[in-house]
Amino acid sequence: MGDHAYAPGVTGLITLAAEAPVPNLDAGSLVLVLAAASGGAILSRLNTRILLPTVVIEILLGILIGPEGLGWAKIDTHIDFLANFGLVFLFFFAGIELVEHRVARRSLLRGTAGWAISIAIGVAIGYILNGAGLHAEGWLLGVALSTTALGTLVPILADARLLSTTLGSAVLGSGVAGEFWPILVVSIFLTGAYGALFETLLLLVFGAIVLLAAAAALRARPPRVVRVLQQTVHTTSQAAVRLSVFTLAALVFVSVEAGFDFVLGAFAGGLVVGLALSSPEAIPVRMRLEGVGYGFLVPIYFVVTGMNFDLDSLLTPEGIGLAVIFLGLFLVVRGVPALLWLRDLAPRETLSLAVYSATGLPLIVAIVGIGIERGAIGRDVGTSLIGAGMISVLVLPLIATALAERESSPLDDAPSESPA
Q1: Residue 6: per-residue pLDDT
Q2: 135 FRET partner, CA 20 to 30 A, in 2, 174, 279, 376?
């Protein structure tokens, strides 16, 4: 750790602050960002017949107030910090969702097999496009094309009463795989700090730490500590929320110190906290965490993504054409594995699963942002990829729901599956 500066202490921090003052907060821009985040939540629910994805509205409002739009708001260091914290919480909640949905083991295995097919097709296409001159690394394109927006799909499936059907189980299995494996691959391949063997060993050590933390979360629950956590749920202490955020920060720190991307630590933090909160009594704690994340930090990340969005690059023949190509590739890369479910689903339901699985945006935004920062993808290509993701969450779930047969078979009638 010789390359890292030591902590200067309180006196040292005061001296440093006097010598190099922190830039002033642009309060006006922050207010506009928060207004856009609030507006996204309201505007997405104004039409009771069609619920628009909040993420898309937040990005569009970010474009509107940002430099590519009206130019009312700009990103300073404070807003950028909050946005990055929101990105950490985005992957944190992805880990919690993986535990919360308790997808049947059979669906998870088939979803993982389907994702393996997706990543093989996606990486092959990615390297073909890269060889044709597209400014993006082939593996990164392959991972981005193989994602699924599970968080966007779950409420849509619930509203359509499809969650308790075989189709719903298939979408959950496909969606969990389409979130977990891309996060794991991106967090490893975007580092490159060490050799492949050493990185594998570090990953195994990190995995052992996560397993120990998960075991502690499930078993080590001293009665006194549990009592304190329960007693502070409805007080200003909020001990369970503080412990959850501490776990997240600790695993992100360990992940970064080990040379991996913060994404892996944030996702692992979600898995550990999700296991610790996997009981009905923990629902209030999960709600408070969602209040911090989805109510404050995550929306800032998507609004700032809109403010950074290169609209001029998208609104060109090349940009629009590339976005359309990417949208078609989503359907190919994520749609082909739906054929694995033909034995359990009718042809129309299988097509619906293919279209549902091709819906992706939150992880695409995150992957593109990290890729641009690491120089693995050009800003113009990333813009078209995000544009295609926005279209996918706006259009594909509507088409998939329309395709789904109303008489989808309930899970009770399907072959029995043991929960994961």
Answers
A1: 36
A2: 174
